[in-house]
Design brief:
alpha+beta; five-stranded antiparallel β-sheet
Length: about 270
């Protein structure tokens, strides 16, 4: 019977090419998309039989030393390495995602009303947004789930030049939360709904990516001010686990900064 650990190992092995792993792929075509099982076993210093047992779910609790060896072989970053240890039962479960807006963040957003900022949960539910954030994207408003918007709202992703990357990062956020709190009914319900309704979500879900970068760039075409290239930053809120603060900004002196400033001014005037 497959387990989250087994599925994770298979997915990450399939995603790692021989050249990325530092080995010669050899001549001719290969029958697997990534590493062969024996190649992973050799890189990790374990037997092929034991690697098979792990990938088939017959050993669910390998030692931390084995996990570290697999993490090195699979070229996992530190956050994904911690996730691997969690799947094997060596880390405490993560807290469930927030359900309500922390009072302190609500006050902060009142001060930051001219900054496109969003408070969301690790399941991508919007808890609060500044007026300028809602002007930037109308789905930045309390009660909206950004993954449902991305996968179930026709045409919304055409606004973004790099939509596949942005959506993959959102799925990775949910994947991390789902694997860390598998019994949370809200997480299960969202995952199951999207798996049932969107083949695109299912394909991204099966990649087992769990560590979206905290800083990135997005390019969109806004219906009022035209093209915008923005930097977004995601901040975890230590005092409120499961809560994320996301801000958007434009590089100083650019056309995007001038356009964003005009958009923010219009949003402020509309609420005056």
């Amino acid at each position: 019977m497959s387990t989250p650990l087994a599925a994770f190992l298979r997915a990450r092995r399939d995603a790692l090419t021989p050249r990325a792993a530092g080995i010669d792929p050899g001549p001719g075509p290969r029958r697997v998309p990534g590493l062969r099982r024996e190649e992973l076993a050799d890189l990790a210093g374990i037997s092929v039989d034991y690697c098979t047992r792990l990938e088939q779910g017959r050993d669910r609790h390998p030692s931390p030393e084995i996990l570290d060896a697999l993490a090195r072989a699979l070229r996992l970053d530190p956050a994904t390495r911690r996730h691997l240890h969690h799947l094997a039962g060596h880390l405490s479960p993560a807290p469930a995602p927030a359900a309500e807006l922390p009072a302190g963040l609500g006050e902060l957003l009142k001060v930051w009303r001219d900054v496109p900022a969003v408070v969301q949960t690790s399941t991508l539910d919007v808890l609060a947004a500044t007026p300028s954030a809602t002007a930037l994207a109308p789905f930045y408003r309390p009660g909206v789930n950004l993954l449902r918007v991305a996968f179930l709202t026709p045409g919304v992703n055409t606004l973004y030049a790099d939509a596949p990357t942005l959506v993959a990062r959102a799925v990775a956020t949910l994947r991390a939360q789902a694997d860390h709190t598998p019994d949370d009914p809200r997480v299960r319900a969202l995952r199951d709904e999207l798996l049932a309704k969107s083949s695109g979500f299912g394909a991204m879900w099966r990649r087992y990516e769990v560590n979206p970068p905290p800083v990135g760039e997005l390019t969109l075409t806004h219906p009022l001010v035209g093209p915008l290239t923005l930097t977004y930053q995601r901040f975890a809120v230590p005092a409120h686990p499961g809560t994320l603060l996301v801000t958007h900004s434009a590089r100083p002196g650019t056309t995007s900064e001038r356009s964003l400033r005009r958009l923010v001014a219009d949003a402020t005037d509309a609420r005056s």
